[in-house]
Amino acid sequence: MRSQTGSLPATANTLNNTIAALQLERAEMHEDLRLIHRKAGTMTKVTVGTITHSGSSVRVNGVASDEDAVFAYARELRESGRFSMVWIPSISESQGAFGFVFDLTK
Known about the structure:
Oligomer: single chain
Helix content: 40-55%
Strand content: 25-35%
Number of strands: 4
Low-confidence stretches: none
Distance between the termini: 47 Å
Number of helices: 2
Radius of gyration: 20 Å
Order of helices and strands: HEEHEE
């Protein structure tokens, strides 16, 4: 019984450290999402669709009314300083709208 009791503080410490790391990661992710939406909100021609966040990588899918708006939005994200790289792997035009995919790296 004594050996089990002795390991409880160590287990609790490990659990507390894990929870703290998850909370920090969640806060970082929330800030990323907030910035992505805030920058799109300042641009009348851009609508963000889906966002996939995985570690230090973020993928943003969206639609813009023209190609210039896609590049302007990418510039806004790049100039924010939050992401070390903003890459545009895809832009496609369909019925006058431009769908885009951005890959962002922290």
